[in-house]
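Try it yourself: sequence plus beta-D-galactopyranose, in.
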Amino acid sequence: MTAFKRTLSALAVSACLMPAAATHAGEVEVLHWWTAGGEARAAAALKEMMEEQGHTWKDFAVAGGGGEAAMTVLKTRAVSGNPPAAAQIKGLDIREWAKLGFLTSLDDVAAAENWDQLVPPMISDVMQYEGEYVAVPVNVHRVNWLWVNPQVMEKVGVEIPNTLDEFFTVADKLKAAGYIPLAHGGQPWQDATVFEAVALAVMDSDTYRKAFVEHDMDVINSAVMEEVFAKFAKVMSYVDDNAAGRDWNTATGMVIRGEAAMQIMGDWAKGEFTAAGLTPGEDYLCAAAPGTAGEFTFNVDSFAMFSLSEEEDVAAQKDLARTILEPKFQTVFNQNKGSIPVRTDMDMSEFDACAQASMETFKSSADTGELVPSLAHGLATTSYVQGQVFDVVTNFVNSSDKDPVKATDQLAAAIQAAK
Ligand code: GAL
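Structure, out:
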């Protein structure tokens, strides 16, 4: 055998020994903002599953809850012609990126994996541009949750509040006993997260939709909106004085340690309780944000896929898209992240009680019409309107007079200008 033939046959043998995927091994660079405890564990599950398939994971994590910083960095990278393979982009923004020609079609993966059958149409619609999949949904977060430290509640002799009025009574008692009633971080997206929970408590889901999805000016500029701002101001009065700039997971830590009794936050907060080894129903409690039982504010994380030039990287990107909707990933990721699977056919017995309750309410609220998109997390409207609402809400939180009539006028003007 000549040296040349020997080399060829050695190559042939080693090719046979290699796992199938590795012959197409490529690199995926993935932009996300999952840097808190539970989030990082969830992201690590995806990395691991990509590496198992022989691909290289290039982590592009940009810290900052809610993703505002990540989106700024993404724009810079994309404009300079160097976008990542995948980026966490949500809601209507997916279409904006597709319209600009940045995204690639995932229709071959979607057809082969039957995505149309796996994901509710309300979600799969958002993942498509002109009838083609350009993004893959990862999970469903419920945003209107109240996280509670039961030991603190017991010491003070109070129960979980079911309505806003009950919340005010309970919070007064907690405050009198020396606890911080509501853990919160003063950042625009966190302010908006509490604001939309209060809005959903004051309004019914139809009115919420008219205001924040359809931007019906009669609803936005109304006495009901003034009541939303008035109640929101009262809720925020139970936050401590050091909240400015505090990260959401630091606020969750305050509930975990028993410095604060409650937090209104999406169920990525549960990822923090889980990462701390805590059990729902014992060490912490989850309940609907006061006044929103049966309603479900949804926030769907999704990865939009950018056009790439290298064949191996395209293969890796398609494997990433396929892996995300596989049952194994959906279970491991969501157990760590605090969310529920985006596939509605999943066995929920391996999930904790909060996730099971979330899935139940997700399904029942879809039937009753009480399933509404989150404004604070980019599912209800464009990022332009969202940004305007953030400004008005955060200015309101930081103003000394907190005038609900003035804030309603400002909100109306801001939405009118941006819609
Ligand atoms: C949300 C996002 C979640 C979580 C949270 C805090 O907008 O959908 O996945 O990361 O921000 O950063």
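One thing you can check immediately is this: The mean pLDDT is 94.
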